[in-house]
Amino acid sequence: MSWDFRAPGAPHPSYSDPKLFSIRMYHGGQICGHCYASGSVAWFDYCDKDRMSMTEIDNMVRELGYDGVISYWYSTPIYSNGGLTKLNDNQDGIDMLVFVPETMIIYIFLHHEIDSNEGWFYSQSGSNMFVDVEADIVPN
């Protein structure tokens, strides 16, 4: 494991190693148009660019207590302007990590799918979906 779950209220770490970054994970909600609705936020710190993989992201999701059909989407605060890109496989994960160390935070959104056919609708690699993460998350 190359990351630590941040306890609620704990401060954001300061990284001196350019391979380290944090993940701000939106979970428990749904991507609805231009917002992430009815969800929560969890932080994972000390993620290592050289050790990150889809398996590590799956482990983070399990740490939050989730199982089942979940789509992963990501954005970077300084490059994506709110646009989301789907994480399908390790190559997508590698593509996501090219933004580290220019950004030390990557946003990951969990889309809890209602049924297995919904994944077909979201199967594209890129997307025209945009999420305003500061204004549009609605707490449970």
Helix content: 10-25%
Average pLDDT taken over every residue: 82
Strand order of the largest sheet: 1-5-2-8-6-7
Pattern of helices and strands: EEEEEHEEHEH
What structural category do the secondary elements indicate? alpha+beta
What Rg do the Cα atoms give? 14 Å
Strand content: 25-35%
Distance between the termini: 30 Å
Compute the number of strand runs.
Answer: 8
Number of helices: 3
Poorly predicted regions: 116-129
The geometry reads as: globular
For the biggest sheet, the summary is: 6 strands, mixed
Describe the structure.
With 140 residues, this protein is an alpha+beta fold. The chain has three helices and eight strands. The protein has a six-stranded mixed beta sheet with strand order 1-5-2-8-6-7, with helices on one face. The protein has a two-stranded antiparallel ribbon with strand order 3-4. β3 and β4 form a beta hairpin. It is globular and about 35 Å long. The termini are far apart. Residues 116-129 have low confidence and may be disordered.
Explain briefly what this protein structure is.
The protein is of the alpha+beta class.
Kindly list the characteristics that best describe this protein:
140 residues; alpha+beta; two-stranded antiparallel sheet; globular
Lay out the secondary structure.
Layout: E1 4-5, E2 20-27, E3 30-32, E4 35-37, E5 40-48, H1 54-63, E6 70-75, E7 85-87, H2 90-97, E8 105-112, H3 118-121
Parallel strand pairs: 2-8
Antiparallel strand pairs: 1-5, 2-5, 3-4, 6-7, 6-8
